[in-house]
Amino acid sequence: MTKYRKETGSGDNRPRCGWCRHPLAPATGPGRPKKFCSQKCRQWDWVSRQRAAELELSENELVVARGELDNLKDLIFVLQCAVNDVTADLASGRHTKESLRELTEWLLEAAEPVTTASFGGPVVRS
């Protein structure tokens, strides 16, 4: 199981897109290293910098629609509840393979909407 450590990061040291934060492909050949994964991300970054300049926002400030923020907070709350439920269930004693599968599925169901809200792409599950 992969564990996330706050102090060291997730262990993936590849450069990331300046807009969507997806990992960039390794640089090949001469030239400057890529900062964006696509022209679309480069354009959105430029638009956001122009808009931030108009609003006189600093580099560390972000404007988010209240509805989007509320939705993300709701999704995170559901995930927090799922983590608390699974933690309590795991502490309650021995488990069968089926009960562990149910706990894992419940946690994944709660986490999936958060990942799609954050990155905009579908989660691939088999």
Please sum up the structure shown.
The protein is 52% helix and 0% strand. By secondary structure, it is mostly helical.
Which secondary structure elements does this structure contain, and how are they paired or packed?
Elements: H1 39-55, H2 66-91, H3 97-119
Helix pairs in contact: 2-3
What brief labels describe this structure?
single chain; 126 residues; mainly alpha; 2 domains; 3 helices; 0% strand; disordered N terminus; disordered C terminus
Can you describe this structure?
The chain folds into two domains: 35-64; 65-126. With 126 residues, the chain is an all-alpha fold. Helix 2 packs antiparallel against helix 3 (97-119). Helix content is 52%, strand content 0%. The chain has helices spanning 39-55, 66-91, 97-119. It starts with 38 loop residues before the first helix and ends in a 7-residue tail after the last helix. The model is unreliable at 1-9 and 120-126 (pLDDT under 50). It contains three helices and no strands.
Q: Which class of secondary structure composition applies to the elements?
A: mainly alpha
How many runs of DSSP E, i.e. beta strands? Answer: 0
Spans of at least 5 consecutive residues whose pLDDT stays below 50 are: 1-9, 120-126
Mean pLDDT: 82
